[in-house]
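Input sequence (375 aa), recorded before submission:
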Amino acid sequence: MSPYRAGRGTCGDAGRRGYWGSQLVRHTIDMQFLTRAFHEPGGLRYHGGAVAYVVLGYALGGYGIFQQSWIINAFATVWLAHAMTIAAYLIHECGHNTVFRANAANARLGRFLNWICGSAYGTYEDIRYKHFRHHVDNDDSVWFEYDPFFRRHPVLTRCVQFLEWFYIPAHELVMHFIMTFTAFIVPNRRAQRLRNVRVILIRGGIFFTVLWFAPRAAMLYAVAYLLMMHLLRFMDSLQHDYGANPTLFVENPPSRFGGRATEQAHTFSNPLSLRYEKANWLTLNFGFHNAHHSRPTLPWYKLPAHHRERFGTDPMQVIPLATQLRIYHKYRVVRVLHEGGEFDDRRKPMAQEYLAAVHAGEVYGGNAVSFLIAF
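Predicted structure, token format:
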């Protein structure tokens, strides 16, 4: 090879190395910028992965329910349900500003996920406000008390209990109905009526269009939504020992349980597994609830380590999955009114007595306490 040609080759190699080097530097800078946007460096991997899973699961699950194969339909329905469940837990993360550094970025993601969860009839800000009241008040601060409502409407109550016997989460459907028309039912949300109507028209229009042209897909979406309701309700059911308190729109209400000072005493953890921690990713570690209440701004992927550090690994200090499944199944009808079972005459257990009662399977559990229900 001539010196001239060799020289050209050398220059070409150097040019290519320079080009790819500059691209690598640019990519590194872009990744650093993206990483800095998250609340902490691990956020890109964990939060980013969870958001990607939600978008992929919602898109492909939605596509799958339109297919002719029942096998694909079944897989797609479960995936769609789980993607919406993870979206709900990511809304919870956004509410605590654990995803991004900027509060505005957390709010934008939370509003987007609110549409995926089907809870956009009310606002993300309403969800966040009610959940913060839960933490600050150490209580279930609500506007709507369903116990007296069901007692005033016995026919509706019997219908709800009948459907619950068949594992249809009718109690949550009642709450979802109120959520759908929230601005027309909750007086403090009347200013949102126009927005409420727009969301109803958009979501309702899409659903009924699908129902008309692809009724099986519409029904499978409904099944996926009911599964999401079950998953969220199951995880929430035993995490606190107190019931609803109608103080959501009351400023500075008196604390029933001593506020933050006694928060841990009334909070309980129900991880899917202590031994196999990654199994808890199925619910974004939401079962490590004491750890969450200990440090509410800690992202979901750091909760197991904080739980071990502060609360240890004693299985008697958490609610076993098998016990919770048994309670969830056995008292699914009684739980609607919290009466009609064998524990009606007992004094309501609190704090450590509550945990002991749960271990013995001697509580009914709760319904309709999802953080998506903002009233």
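Checked by second reader. The chain has 15 helices and two strands.
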